[in-house]
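cache lookup: miss for this entity combination. No prior model stored, computing from scratch. Input as submitted by user K.M.:
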Amino acid sequence: MTTTRLERASAGTADFLDQRTGIGVAVKNFARKIFPDHWSFLLGEIALFSFVVLLGSGIFLTMFFVPSMTEVHYEGPWAPMHGVEMSEAFASTLRLSFEVRGGLLMRQIHHWAALLFMAAIVVHMLRVFFTGAFRKPRELNWVVGFTLLILGLAAGFTGYSLPDDVLSGNGLRITDGVVKAIPIIGSYMSYFVFGGEFPGTDIIPRLFTLHILVVPGLILALIGLHLFLVVLHKHTQFPGSGRTDGNVVGFPLFPVYTAKAGGFAFIVFGLITLMAATIQINPVWNYGPYDPSPVSAGAQPDWYMLFLEGSLRLMPGQTEYVIGGYTLSLNVLIPAVVIPGLLFTVLGAWPFLEAYATGEKREHHVLDRPRNAPTRTAAGVAIVTAFFILVLAGANDLIATHFEMSLNDITWAFRVLFFVAPVFAFWITKRICLGLQRRDRDLVLHGHESATIVRLAHGEYIEVHKPLDEHELWLRVNYSSPRPIEIEPAEDSRGVRRKGYRADRIRRRLSEFFYADRIEPVSAEELAAARAHQAEHHALLEGGGRHSAALPAEESTSTTVDVEATSDR
Amino acid sequence: MSTNDTPRHDELVVTHAPEGVVDPGLPPHQPRLGDTDPKASKRSERIVAALFGLSVLGSIGVIVAYFAFPPGESVSSIQQSNMFLGLGLAFCFAGIGFGAVHWAKSIMNDHEKVEERHPQRSSDEDRAAAVEVLKEGAADSGIARRSALKGGLITALALLPLPVALPLIGNVGADWDVSKFRHTMWRRGTRLMTDPTYRPIRAADVTIGSVVHVIPEGLHHDELESDQSFMDEKAKAVVLLVRLDERDLKHTEGSYHGIVAFSKICTHVGCPVALYEQQTHHLLCPCHQSTFDVADGAKVVFGPAKRALPQLPITVDDEGYLIATDDFSEPIGPSFWERVK
């Protein structure tokens, strides 16, 4: 019978492998490893699977792309470019689009996958940030992921420039301008990057090597480390009854996650392919080869570079100074280096910053609901807002033409908003978080509104509240609400100034920034009192219900309030 | 520190709930339709199989499209080829994907399982043993007692990057002659030529309000000297020429009867400044929107650039063609550290 033959074959293979690798132990330990389930855990997977697509389509492209800046005259099938002088890089990109079957599809798959890769990384990072998944023991993995974000930007940048079309060439020229603005070594850095004057003939081959070897190699290695640490730490889980820092609740790797994650990989492949099949991206045959003279208006870089572009656009030019005969181009350095540097440093260092302010040493495996970490949530929203303003500023010309507004006014508005909007976003987000905490508190103490108003025997009207079930109650009370840390006074009992007070004070300030505004969680006494109150009502209703009819539902003002809809689980 | 530093498994389980509220444990399992109704279960199975079948159709579709829709000489032909190949491949992927996920969600056992976590930290015994092992190794190496070894090794390793980096860094920057930033191909007497048609420009032919994209005479593949690179020279030498009513010009120096020529390379980060507004005489850089006033020496009126575009001083030769009277008076393009040195 075939099944037994199949069984015998697989047993033979397994035996062969195990005798040489001892793989049985690994299978025993990992095959049924438990992973928790939540839609937001898929975000990182999208990034991973997009990267797989990038590798696959990238290998295809390298078979035909020629990374050379040697000038050739185009003689391919695309008539408008006949005889036009262009680099071999651009000519081979045209060949990929017009002559290689499936070449355009692979180009478009590669480009769309790159955009999705970056988007998935960013959204995954936001999920990790807002749920506090970066806390001990995962701080290092946050740094690994953060490095992957930077490498993703590098991969995108180096790849975008390769076709040597007029758009990417101008992108490189902007890079040259930014590099030259670096104090002291800027001019030499420009020579270093371009192998002489811009554009030279070295930059495309160099970017090619970085793009297909160095950067993806690093990304691959770090993805390996990232996933290894995920397995080592076991995945975090969302809070809820039965889930603690000491366990992990979910489904086994084999077969559920093999099927779910494996299937999801194919869904991501399918989605990217569908986009590539139906949505045109980077039609370089319209742009033409790079030439230092022409440029097109309304040209935007890929979305993940827009914030840098916007940052450059917003900075007023007055900030270029000549000091002692040397030029300091703060109008370029601040937007291209300092601002992104600040945003990224805060992001990268956040786990350590927060741990320092909390002074906590415990491991965390149950995620925070964002409302229960108001300052973190607010800071995250503020950073996202600043980023978003810069992205919009990078499209200020499109906003101007689409909405027929003055470009200069828009630029000025964004200049102001860049400073005001994050502060406002911080404030309002924190208020919303604290408001939601108050609501949790309210629900725990009083239960859900039932929209039933009852008149008691003595004439009093009450609304009947439905107490939370035990699972919901647990979700809404079981969270930590730290207070600002206490520090020792500046002077000891004999009036001698204490060493280390200054550092302590900074830490105290930071801790106050994080935890001074807080909603006191429900205490055991409050809960007991609320329950007693509810019991009292209940008794009255039981006792008085026979004498006074409940008001018909239609007559009360909030008859149709759906308790599930108003609760924000 | 204290024993707080040594979390045990039970220390991982911390509750923040008020006293009296206890963890009720996992919520009860909610059965799916297929768990109770064999018909629904059978239906799920058919759906999964159909989705896998869809993938097979997609694969066949790709093969058909490969032969049926070759890319051709027009954009519509490559778009058609792209679309049919892509749709086939998308079905090929998505069929497998949705099939597998539907299988997992509707047929596979969906009872949640619980696994215990253990603190990451190794136990005190393991830590002590690790330290012991390292100490033994260090003792075996003898490094502690032989400071010459230590110093020698550190010095050798510290110097190692130098011989690797020096040839690399030394070579990649070509001749490192950054003074090339200061000069362009423009000389006294260089004719202004149209770009890309490469014809000399007669001053009389330039009408008021018109804009001409200009390159220097000699910037042509047949005429370049061997040490000159077309792209490198063009990247510095491109010029935008505009004719204004002479009365609108605030300074006439370097101009010829209302014709002015400015470097086309933005002084911000180097994009070509190519958008000219006839009415306001403003030049706009499409990359970052630095705006220059051509009537006023191409001074910055808005945006992230600080300096005016360098002007190319021009006049006409005996035949009435526009020529340069000199190179730009300052380096063109973005600022760099030693620009005014």
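stored under new cache key. Chain A touches chain B through 139 residues (CB under 8 Å).
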